[in-house]
Design a protein that fits this description.
Length: about 325
């Protein structure tokens, strides 16, 4: 039992913030993989967030912030630290000075519903991306040549020392599936530029994106596209051309519908998926010379995984 347990339990003052010990992270990722978190906190106030940051800093406790877990492959070993998820108090949309103000925990689907209701437009391309606003900012989520960063004006959040900061668009650098934010930064909310549009036009755009997505992407437990698209060809096409679609490893398999998706059939392990990632990377590199880079965040990093695999092999 963690020695800092009492400290966490006595320092979190707001009843709306919930603390869970030994929560399975597989319940919080869309690929349904992830081991226990020693401490899992659904934070509902800024003060509680600051308290958690201060305890983690002083006690050197590893800290991880999770959105909807839709762009992540987490080890099924126990995470000996604190996982923070922002609660409902951080899930909101409102119009402020003609911009959209959004809480970091807001599901992207809620943003689309809110905008449609107000005849506002600009984010229909996000349809079908199962993330939160915070997670979308971190990976500069996008589709069909549009990205959330294109219309982001400002982000408010916390530095690891608990300091509240606002980062405006001149200091936000968005790139293909990445954003440069300070290390350990917690996004609390952000502001997006919106435009007016007729509800019929908005509905039509959403219908087009929905059709494209349902035609090309598989249903089931996944973390979306596992690799970034190289400059000249899509990762899915490279995987298809290398006859990797349908390849299984335990209960994980490469989708036949979209080669860049790995699905968890049922109870697949972290290693099942991790090994499929390595098979894809090495096959594609061997046959084409192209080095694929993960789009999903893999926790822990590959060095650590190799260490466990060696330990497992040594212990028989
Ligand atoms: C079926 C499917 C389809 C998808 N399609 C697309 C697509 O078309 N385009 C696309 O870009 N992505 C796509 N994705 C990937 C994913 O949905 C997006 O990247 C999404 O924006 C991730 O948001 P999340 O809340 O799930 O983040 P998580 O996966 O929970 O976290 C991702 C990263 O963001 C960090 N993070 C989360 N919240 C915060 C916060 N408040 N403050 C600081 N850091 C934070 C986490 O620490 C982690 O590093 C798809 C995924 C699935 C499963």
């Amino acid at each position: 039992m963690a020695s800092w347990r009492r400290l966490i339990e006595t320092s979190i003052v707001d009843k709306a913030t919930k603390i869970y010990w030994g929560e399975s992270l597989s319940k919080h990722t869309t690929i349904r993989i992830g081991g226990q978190a020693e401490c899992f906190i659904v934070a509902n106030t800024v003060d509680d967030l600051k308290t958690i940051l201060a305890i983690a800093e002083h006690q050197s406790i590893p800290l991880f912030i999770l959105g909807n877990g839709s762009n992540i492959l987490i080890s099924d070993q126990k995470f000996n630290g604190i996982v923070i998820k922002l609660g409902d108090a951080f899930s909101y949309c409102m119009i402020e000075n003609n911009n959209l103000r959004i809480g970091a925990a807001t599901p992207l689907s809620h943003i689309l519903t809110y905008l449609l209701d107000k005849s506002l437009s600009g984010f229909e391309f996000l349809w079908g991306i199962p993330g939160t606003f915070g997670g979308a900012i971190v990976s500069n989520a996008g589709a069909y040549s549009q990205n959330i960063g294109d219309r982001t004006i400002k982000i408010n959040g916390l530095l690891p020392d608990g300091q509240e900061v606002a980062i405006d668009k001149n200091n936000l650098h968005f790139d293909y599936r990445k954003t440069t934010l300070p290390l350990g930064f917690i996004i609390m909310e952000g502001f997006l530029q919106i435009t007016s549009n007729r509800p019929t036009a908005i509905r039509q755009l959403i219908a087009e994106y929905r059709k494209k997505r349902t035609l090309t992407q598989p249903a089931g437990a996944s973390a979306g596209s596992v690799f970034k698209n190289p400059k000249l060809v899509s990762a899915g096409k490279l995987i298809d051309d290398n006859n990797l679609k349908g390849v299984c490893n335990g209960n994980a398999y490469i989708s036949r519908k979209h080669g860049n998706f790995i699905l968890n059939r049922c109870n697949a392990s972290f290693i099942n998926v991790y090994e499929l990632l390595q098979i894809i990377k090495s096959t594609v590199e061997f046959n084409t010379g192209t080095i694929l880079e993960e789009e999903i965040q893999v926790l822990p990093k590959s060095q650590e995984v190799k260490k466990w695999q060696n330990q497992k092999n040594c212990s028989g």
